[in-house]
Amino acid sequence: MSANLVNDRADAHNDDAPEAPGGPAGGRLSGRARLRRSLVLAAVFVCAACGLVYELALVALGSYLLGNTITQASVVLALMVFAMGIGSLAAKPLTRHAAVAFAAVEIVLALVGGTSVLVLYAAFAWWSLYQPMLVVLALAIGLLIGAEIPLLMTLLQRIRRQEASSAVADLFAADYVGALVGGMAFPFVLLPWLGLLEGTLVVGAVNAAAGAAVTLGLFRTSIGRRARVLVAGALVLTLATLLALAGLASTFEATARQRIFRDPVVHSERSAYQEIVVTRSMKGKDTRLFLNGDLQFSSVDEYRYHEALVHPAMSGRRQRALVLGGGDGLAARELLGYDDVASVTLVDLDPAVVRLARQDPTLRTLNDDAFADPRLHVVHADAFAWLRANQQEFDVVIADMPDADDVATAKLYSVETYGLVRRALAPGGRVVVQAGSPYFAPEAYWTTAASLRAAGLSPTAYHVDVPSFGDWGFFLATHGPAPELRMPADAPTTRFLDADTLEAAQTFPKDRAAMPLSPSTLLEPTILERQGNWQGY
């Protein structure tokens, strides 16, 4: 037997033999044991933070690509928590080799969790296998996270034998604090500084390093040299893979994004609120704006939508107008075409969209450089929050808000929101709401009518054909009797909407007639349930 092997075994005995409860004489842990125990708990902290980031990343990507954050969060969290239980049970046989097993679990978790966003985005863009891949990844990450706890508990007990309740309390305290830090770091540090794709890859690298450090640093003498070499090699390979992928992330994202959209992508950015993409056809005739993958307009036919949205509300007083949403400036363009409109207040959450509409030459041409008009005042705020604080009255309110495919957007179509809009209307004022497609999402469309009525407004329904969207519906509403739908006598020249078109727009076929539905509220967002899987493009 070589001298080195004898020394290794002696070190293993000295390092890994657990101290009795209360430690050595004097009832205290030795300084070395206390340090080792603190470092294991620090590893618990780091691994918990990384695990929560993986969960949040899957939820965030689902909300970007599919909307409906509640469904995405429920699926991911339910699958992961279930798999964590299975993983804890499966880890029992591994506790005999806890140090090596822990390193292996963390390295595999780093690879699976760190690349999860990349793999899931690829499944969405190329293979149309998003949901099956989401299930596989959520289960795999949950299994690996669940396996951590028994292994870490074993490692802690090797340093110091404790009562089970005391050991569990220490372990879970570090775990929960780590989860807190991971949860806070995800929206405030990782997303703004690194982005979703690069952020998860970097977190994976941190996860692998923390896991391997416990084995190679604190428990190195409890494993053979061959195992140490294998763990070190796996760590180096994992770190190299994750960091190389992080370097290629921008290229991958651009390629995947282009795969999703029909036309070439000419602008893309991820703001603090959403993914913003502009595409342009090869001949430059069709420019399209997408927010989180949802089409906002096509330059080929956007005038049909915006003329139908704005002009029916302009019969009557119109000195003061309010636009909720509409950061592209296209609704403001129609309003500013009336010389007697004294002011237009535009409330849009995302400064990045407005900045794009101000600066992009094509969008500036489309909106007639509306943001240069001194009558237009822009406020960056959540529409619901702004309406709650608002003390002004408006003659015309244009609700050009995103479709209700998520909780955050569903609240904009609630009774509470329309109640705030009603309060903001001057006597005789009118509000027009874009309400989705009465053909493809009829229940959601007529739910909007029910919500308007519940808020004390009387709606008049109409719909027009917008080829890039399909048949699209609106409601014009006011206090008192339902308003008459007509074109203003002094309306600016329009390309599509006229009196005859507007009269025809009020006719609905039998299979799309009005439906008696309950309204949508903040606590019961029925419009979200009735939106279905309709995608407006």
Automatic annotation (TrEMBL):
**Complex and partners:** Homodimer or homotetramer.
**Which pathway is this protein engaged in?**
Amine and polyamine biosynthesis; spermidine biosynthesis; spermidine from putrescine: step 1/1
Residues where S-methyl-5'-thioadenosine binds: Q274, D348, D382, A383
Example GO CC term: the record gives: plasma membrane
Q: What does this protein do?
A: Catalyzes the irreversible transfer of a propylamine group from the amino donor S-adenosylmethioninamine (decarboxy-AdoMet) to putrescine (1,4-diaminobutane) to yield spermidine.
Transmembrane stretches, start-end? 38-64, 70-91, 98-127, 133-156, 168-194, 200-219, 231-252
Q: Which InterPro entries match?
A: MFS_trans_sf (IPR036259), PABS (IPR030374), PABS_CS (IPR030373), SAM-dependent_MTases_sf (IPR029063), Spermi_synthase (IPR001045)
* Family named by the database record: Belongs to the spermidine/spermine synthase family.
Q: Which PANTHER family match?
A: THERMOSPERMINE SYNTHASE ACAULIS5 (PTHR43317)
Q: Where does this protein reside within or beyond the cell?
A: Cell membrane
- Give its E.C. classification number: 2.5.1.16
Instruction: Cite a single Pfam family from the UniProt record.
Output: Spermine_synth
Stored CDD domains: AdoMet_MTases
Q: Does the record bear Transcription regulation in its keywords?
A: no
Record carries keyword Transmembrane helix? yes
Which HAMAP family is this protein grouped with?
Spermidine_synth (MF_00198)
Query: Which residues does the Swiss-Prot or TrEMBL record annotate as the active site?
Result: D400 (proton acceptor)
Q: What segment(s) does the record annotate as region Disordered?
A: 1-25
Q: What gene name is listed for this protein?
A: speE
Positions of spermidine binding:
H306, D328
Q: What terms describe the molecular function in GO for this protein?
A: spermidine synthase activity; thermospermine synthase activity
Q: Which reaction does it catalyse?
A: S-adenosyl 3-(methylsulfanyl)propylamine + putrescine = S-methyl-5'-thioadenosine + spermidine + H(+)
What is this protein identified as? Polyamine aminopropyltransferase
What Gene3D superfamilies does this protein map onto? Vaccinia Virus protein VP39
List this protein's GO terms for biological process: spermidine biosynthetic process
Recite the UniProt keywords alphabetically.
Cell membrane, Membrane, Polyamine biosynthesis, Spermidine biosynthesis, Transferase, Transmembrane, Transmembrane helix
